[in-house]
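does this look right to u?? NAP version
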Amino acid sequence: MKIALITGVTRREGLGFETAMQMVDLGYNVIISGRDFTKVRVLAGELNASGMELDVTSEESIKDAASYVRENYGKLDALINNAGGYYDAGAQPLEINIEFAKSAFETNLFGALRVIKAFMPLHEESGSARIVNVSSGAGSFSDPIFGLSNNQSIAPVYSMTKLALNGLTVKIAGQINHSKIKINSVCPGFVATYPGTAEWGARPVNEGASGIVWAATLPDDGPTGGFFRDGKVLQW
Ligand SMILES: NC(=O)c1ccc[n+]([C@@H]2O[C@H](COP(=O)([O-])OP(=O)(O)OC[C@H]3O[C@@H](n4cnc5c(N)ncnc54)[C@H](OP(=O)(O)O)[C@@H]3O)[C@@H](O)[C@H]2O)c1
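got this back:
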């Protein structure tokens, strides 16, 4: 059976929970994780999934999580780096609080990098693993609403972390291009994971999650090192 791990699953309304549900429906053995295990355990029970504590800013937590997966499953077929946040909607670049920015990069960029590094040996056991970095059009230049070219000053820290995450995707893809492991960035679109956002035009969570699931279940001739929404290429 194929094993999938999803980070940042502590809210029923979130993309991680919906992604987990879709992966369970596809027959994957899904491990959901988060830094608050009390919340993770409840959600895992609802999903018919396993639950694990995993704080993406903690090397120790990640090491323990990787040991747990090795001992219980021996491999990892899909890793979905969904943990993230720090959407500084009203902020302006010149007023960035550096400590806030450091924390955002610790989670959104280095969190994903730490998890990928720790689980790479388990991906190698899988042979055809898929890694998905949940990114955002805010980290692209091209997105017509949230992109850097069009919406230059809004949500500066969040946008920079996702821009960097997209860069990380490309760099890792280059290093592992000899293997069958694939890594891609996915923007779920503007998704209604918080109250009130549907009124601003956010789309249903299941639609955003399906593009993540697409990248997590790519066939062997699928793309790597790309940026996608709904299974279609997004320009950087
Ligand atoms: N919603 C959108 O429109 C949208 C659009 C583009 C991209 N995204 C991306 O999609 C992902 C999920 O977002 P969402 O909208 O579903 O919001 P969400 O439910 O708040 O998801 C973020 C998750 O990340 C977790 N997290 C934060 N810091 C963590 C850490 N150090 N270790 C482990 N987990 C941590 C949070 O857990 P806690 O409960 O512990 O804080 C939460 O479960 C994020 O990466 C976000 O940037 C969302």
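The pocket of NAP is lined by residues 7-11, 14-16, 34-36, 54-57, 82-85, 107, 111, 134, 136, 187-188, 190-191, 193, 202 (CB under 6 Å). idk if thats expected tbh
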